[in-house]
Amino acid sequence: MTPRHTDLPKAETVSLVDHLAGELARAGVTHVFGVGGANIEDLYDAVHRAGSIRGVVAKHEFSAVTMADGYARTTRRLGVVAATSGGGAMNLLPGLAEAYASRVPVLALVGQPPTGQEGHGAFQDTSGRAGSFDAREVFAPVSRFCARVDDADSLTELLPRAMAAAQADPAGPAVLLLPKDVQQAQVQLPSRSVARMPGVLPTAAAVARLDTVALTAVADTLRGADRVLVIAGEDVAATDARAELAELAGRLGAWVAVTPDAKDVFDNSDSRFAGVAGVMGHANVGDCLRRADVCLLIGTRLPLLARGGLDRALAATEVVCLGPEPPFVPGTTLLGHLSDTLRAVSDLLPPRRRACPQHSGPLPTVMPSPDPQARGRTIPYTQALAAVEAALPDDAHVFVDAGNAGASAVHLLPAPRHGRFVVALGMGGMGYTFGAGIGAALATGRRTYVLAGDGAFFMHGMEVHTAVEHAAPVTFVIFNNNAHAMCAVREKFLQGGIRSDDLFFPTDLGAGMAAAFPALEVTGAEDAAHLRRALLRSNASCGPAFVALDCEPGELPPVPPLPVLHRSHPSHRNHREQGELP
Predict the structure, then answer these.
(1) What is the pLDDT of residues 212-229, one digit of tens each?
(2) Distance between CA atoms of 15 and 23, rounded to whole angstroms?
(3) Rounded Cα–Cα distance for residues 97 and 172 (Å)
(4) Nearest C-alpha neighbor of 479 from the set 576, 558, 572, 553
(5) What's the distance, CA 424 to chain centroid?
(6) Share of the chain above pLDDT 70, in %
(7) DSSP characters over 551-563
């Protein structure tokens, strides 16, 4: 019998933003980061009314994206950022570019002017009409999915597609453009009796079946190798494949090196640990590679920073790559979801664990001592990072910014055994860590360390204010050398002298932050012992802490000044002849 109209399920009508907030909560999102404004205020109001998601307002949209990024990297959940139109929307771009390049799942919800005003001189019009530029064309290159929500009902299709695209291989940002009037519109939902059950919102794409021919070839190659060097990358952390990595390395009797952005994917105290690969890394990795029969790349495409100084040895060694994307170096490749791929390869190898051959381990590069005539009291990187290591909790997260301090930390500081060690090498933007560390701390509740120089601090360090407002358990450690010191080092070694424009007037950052934020625990560390005490004190607190220490701008970090990246300057040849560059 044909049912009467009154027998059909009744549709529920809600505003688009209420529906959106509800779907985010159902998908496990706990925080939305961003900066408010007229064309996104309705979404913030819906998040506030729902109460199940915490809205965190940053001081700048770039930092809001990095908060979502840090949230995603430490939880392996979707990070969400929301911003208004115009300049707010454009400020998202560098953060989304980092997430795109580093394969981090982020959903950006971007307000737009009301549709009726577009093409008629609307404030912040980015519709592509009447001479305005099109926001879709701007965001498309830094996103896996970008769409404009033209009417309320289309969100029920576009939101699941966006969330799935952000979390598929390769992961990255998805962008939904939301006109203000569409946000306010009503959307009809089917009754709960016919609605999909909570928790089934699409996330990552289904895992593809492995290529059996490639799998067999990889297993045969590895079984025939006496000495294997594994170089493991960020995708091991993104897929939580640490146990599978350790199991495969044990069966192979392999040395294990890591890329600079994946220091936490293998226990740094394990006897197999060979060190960090590439230009910020350890000489032992190159020694192991030259002794290896096979170099096995796991979860890394081996970009330039991770292979600098290794190209010649890689060309002479058989290379095998396991991961979702092909590598930047030639070799045998088995594509697929990483944890499944690792298990499949391990299952084809003998089950017994083998000891790895002897090696020297990640001995740090010895650099010249700082200038004894350096002005004032300064703390060398080696001493400062030893103090950080002594205080760092095993379950802490560490976010390392760009610059000399960051390169030193990658080289010298062991990763915590049960926390992330994050370096944003996708775009390498300065100031990334301030938002990312806050996002990670709020998401996990764990003590999070931000290690940054004064140059990065002056870019986005005012996000400390956000940490204070939300009582985030973040310890900001600022290495203040009153300079863009990596630029100054490059000028000295690659351009024949240091220019004064990269040297700053001295600034007392500790005094400034103490005056600005009376509730913030601030320390100006005078020596390494003082630094260690301040860090231990911050570990025992519940909220943020700020520790500044003075460094010498002329001190070389224990790594080369990244000469492998740029060799076009005419002075490079002379420096190489004098032995200053590799």
Answers:
(1) 999 999 999 999 999 999
(2) 12
(3) 9
(4) 553
(5) 4
(6) 89
(7) --TTPPPSS--ST
